[in-house]
Specification:
CATH topology: SH3 type barrels
Structural class: mainly beta
Largest sheet: 3 strands, antiparallel
CATH architecture: Roll
Radius of gyration: 14 Å
Number of domains: 1
Number of helices: 1
Mean pLDDT: 91
Distance between the termini: 41 Å
Length: 85
């Protein structure tokens, strides 16, 4: 089980690195902006951004901390002109 402090520490990293939360039921939640997550002592709210604003939520999902089984780094977005075809 992940603790409140574990999630908060990851959200506060500078620079922020997007990550994926893996939940025991096989669900996965991509966290791309720290302002869209609200962490409590037993659960957390994950905001899902709308198409017009990536830092404001359109809907939310509540996840119990005891159901989180992993955190994975998301790949960094490719930047144009980095020599890749």
């Amino acid at each position: 089980m992940y603790r409140t402090e574990d999630i908060q520490a990851r959200l506060r990293e500078q620079p922020f690195r997007p990550f994926r939360l893996v939940v025991g039921e096989g669900l996965r939640f991509d966290i791309r902006h720290p302002d869209l997550v609200f962490v409590g002592t037993r659960d957390m709210m994950i905001g899902h951004p709308g198409p017009d604003n990536p830092t404001a939520y359109d809907r939310v999902t509540r996840v119990a901390l005891l159901h989180i089984v992993g955190m994975e780094d998301l790949p960094a977005p490719a930047t144009p002109g980095n020599g890749e075809a």
